[in-house]
Amino acid sequence: MKRPLLALVAGCCALASLVCLVAQEAGPLHAPDGRAPQFISPLYLPPKPNAPFTAVAKTVWVRTLPDGSTVTSQNERRVARDTEGRIFEERVTFVPVPNDGTRRMRVHATDYSDPVEHTRYHCDTYTRVCELFAYYPQMTGTVIPAGLQPDRTTYLTRENLGVDTFAGMQVQRSRETTTLYSGTIGNTKTILRTVDYWYSPELDLNVQVKRHDPRDGDQTLWISDVSLSVPDPATFQPPADYRIIDHRKPE
Questions:
Q1: pLDDT reported for residue 38
Q2: Pairing of strands 243-246, 119-124
Q3: Is the predicted pLDDT of residue 18 greater than 90, yes or no?
Q4: For residue 166, is it within any domain?
Q5: What is the pLDDT of residues 41-54, one digit of tens each?
Q6: Are 237 and 81 in contact (CB under 8 A)?
Q7: Distance (Å, whole) CA 98 – CA 39
Q8: In sequence order, which residues have a C-beta less than 8 Å from that of residue 188 and are 6 or more positions away?
Q9: 4 lies in some domain
Q10: Lowest-pLDDT choice from 141-155, 174-188, 205-219
Q11: In terms of residue numbers, what domain contains 118?
């Protein structure tokens, strides 16, 4: 009985020694950890009826590091809207700039928003699952008054930059500057955030937006390859072979 017990003890000691050796070679052990995720808000597509279009939505994101160097990434995705105001959007991964061709943009999801049926499908291309939510779009045309904001710690100014053209359409240009005074969000100095807009009344859409914020870097978002023809109705139908999970609350 002693020999098996001694063999078991010896085996455990050998395993413990191996674990210690691996730990010494790999460095101190720790629990899994991850960096804080960073997100960018895409162009908002309102469900305007009788204003169909298809386009390619593009984004360039430049972040400046403390040493003055920059990190640049970009993506582009297909978007569309039909005469009923239904919206189709691809969700695409970012790739670095410059890119040697080894990093390619990938469509990781597609969204289908229907203001008539009040539904929004978010379809994951990897799991082949569409999550169904109730869809009630944001109201456009609501303008926040300029001046000192209700929180008493931020100040908003708005400038009219006049009329211009973009992608063959007439647009109204404007700029908003938000001043976040020191102490507003834990900041020790005042932060200025500026956003330039190219707004198309015809599409009820910001066809280009340029954001500058020292916290998020410089973001330029715009649409290109714009067609005002009515898109194929199949564009606004979620994939028939995806599984659907309904998150809507029963009425």
A1: 76
A2: unpaired
A3: no
A4: yes
A5: 999 999 999 999 99
A6: no
A7: 20
A8: 182
A9: no
A10: 141-155
A11: 53-246
Please report the pLDDT score of residue 151 as a whole number. 86
Instruction: Report yes or no on 30 lying in a domain.
Output: no
Integer Cα distance of 35 and 251 in angstroms: 40
**How many angstroms separate the CA atoms of 207 and 222, rounded?**
5
In one letter, which amino acid is 196? D
Which SS3 state, helix, strand or coil, does residue 25 take? helix
Total domains in the chain come to: 1
Cα separation, 212 vs 217, whole angstroms: 6
Asked if residues 133 and 145 have their Cβ atoms less than 8 Å apart, the reply is no
State residue 142's pLDDT score: 63
**Distant-in-sequence, close-in-space partners of 157: CB < 8 Å, separation ≥ 6:** 146, 176, 177, 179
Tokens 């695409």, residue?
A: 92
* In a domain? residue 116: yes
Say which CATH number the domain at 66 has: 2.50.20
Please check whether residue 169 is in contact with residue 202, taking contact to mean a CB–CB distance below 8 angstroms. yes
Element (DSSP H or E) covering residue 2: helix 2-26
pLDDT tens per residue across span 138-173: 766 567 899 999 988 899 999 999 999 998 999 999
Q: Are 171 and 155 in contact (CB under 8 A)?
A: no
CB 52 within 8 A of CB 236: no
The Cα–Cα gap between 105 and 124 comes to 15
pLDDT of residue 15 exceeding 70, the answer is: no
Average pLDDT for the chain: 89
